[in-house]
Design goal:
Strand content: 5-15%
Number of strands: 7
Low-confidence stretches: 1-19
Distance between the termini: 29 Å
Number of helices: 12
Strand order of the largest sheet: 1-2-3
Shape: globular
Radius of gyration: 19 Å
Length: about 350
Amino acid sequence: MKMLHILTLLLPVLAAGEVQGAAFTLDKGYLRQDGAIVTLHNANDIIDPYFPTKALLLAHDHGMDIQELGLRWVNWMLVHQQNNGLFARYCIDEQQMVYHACKVSDADDSMLSMWMELLYRLAPDAGLSEPWAVSFHKAEAQLDLLYDSKKNIYVISQALPVGLLMDNVEIYAAFKRIEADARRMNDRQTAEYFERKAAKLRIGIIKTFWRQSTKRFVASTQARTEYAFYPDKVAQLIPAAYHLHMGFVRGSQKQYKLWMRSNQAEWFGQIGKEYPWGLLAVLAANKNDIKTSYCWYMKAMPERHGPYWSVMDEAAFQVVERSINDNRANKPMTCEGPRV
């Protein structure tokens, strides 16, 4: 599970064939000539597919055009997907100009679902091409192997059969998006299939991870002895952020404000020392909490492209910057006074 493995908000998004806004851009510190995207700026030693895939989904969720970058990334990933459908983390041999799988994926379950989702997002109304469909079904078959039928959730990998809240909510969101894009393609059978899978997974997530006694979510099926910022505190925002409706949990805006009052200082204190958690700033912008997103933006700006800045944070930065520019004329931008 990544430290940043969280929170892409499923706002109403634009289908591949619809008009997009400004393009999501990456400089050569992230983007290689062959379409590969590295994890950290100018760190050309490893490619972890989770981060570029998530960055593209995040940008697309918020109306940015990912077509050019996305197609180049998909073409690179098709070549490097393993025969069994899984993805690894890839090291780069600059002298030989080759990539080789050097580490296993950090979380097969969420990576597979996001890959399936990205293919459907980028596909035209006519549907997936044959190479894309083959890749999709390989990934789907591997994801099916990670399904825990007793709990109705997915586990990280076959080697690590542990269920994580964040992974499962990401998978739920991927299923819902695939359902929507299948309807765009007039593929009713696929749409209804993933609609059923999402509904079943939603029930499994609630039963497995919600604790009525504490009114909290647990982050993992493994017992934890501490209540840390990540994954425990961040986990409380996950289901609502992905529009996984709980029914019995009321006042999500109030809960968000309480969370920010309790945890914002700890979050901001990590900037420059740890990952900057740009996805939380995106959440703030989507909650119309412009002050919090602006304060993060100003604090994070000096750290942009630094040692803790992933390509997913770069996507979050561009999303937040766009939100700030859209709101600048109507709302004063300051970090003074109460933030939420």
